[in-house]
Amino acid sequence: MLRNNSKNGRLLMQHAITHRRPLAYGPSITVTRWLATRRAGEDDEAELAAARRWLAQLDPDTIPRDICDVSFSRSSGPGGQNVNKVSSKATLRIPISSLLPRIPKLLHPSIVSSRYHAAKSNDLVIQADDSRKQNDNVNACFRKLNELIQQAGRDNVPGETSQEQVKRVEQLQKAEAAGRRKMKEFQSKKKSARRGGGRGDD
């Protein structure tokens, strides 16, 4: 019986030590997570800044036309006597696999989910037949592509943070750091009290 009691005592002690470990390693894990979150935030901001610069330079000629396929068919829209007689309707087809590497990643979801995306072929298919001239309709297709990308930018890339917002974020970060320091001090005092046995003066 003494042997069993000794074994049970060791098991209870091991169980108690195991359950105290998270307290011993908690602060380092918290710091690691905080650093990882901070690095992720810095990476996100760098990606946003790069996307803003790219969008600022975007125009209808940004996407090279050699990755696009343009075909013509008879128009059913305006065009007077040329309607259904001249193949003036332009259809612009762009493989998603060729387009996405040329635009910021933040815009990809909106491009793929757009109404121009043909899921079966995985292409963007844009059409225009407003003019009786083929070239005008081709240019209209590229304008629609440009507008699609611009809208994706507005939906996914917020404007630059104002100075007031930056200050507010800095204040919140300082308050969070102060809170962590207070928690560490509190934990330190608790440990000191345990080591002292928690006894006050007689």
From TrEMBL:
Compositional bias (Basic and acidic residues) = 165-188
Q: Which InterPro entries match?
A: Mito_Release_Factor_mL62 (IPR052104), Pep_chain_release_fac_I (IPR000352)
Alphabetized GO MF terms:
peptidyl-tRNA hydrolase activity; translation release factor activity, codon nonspecific
Report the GO terms under cellular component: mitochondrial large ribosomal subunit
Q: Where is this region: Disordered?
A: 153-202
Every copy of the Prokaryotic-type class I peptide chain release factors domain together lies at 63-191
**Ranges annotated as biased composition (Basic residues):** 189-202
Q: Which GO terms describe its biological process?
A: mitochondrial translational termination
What is the protein's name according to its record?
Answer: Prokaryotic-type class I peptide chain release factors domain-containing protein
Tell me the organism's taxonomic lineage. Eukaryota, Fungi, Dikarya, Ascomycota, Pezizomycotina
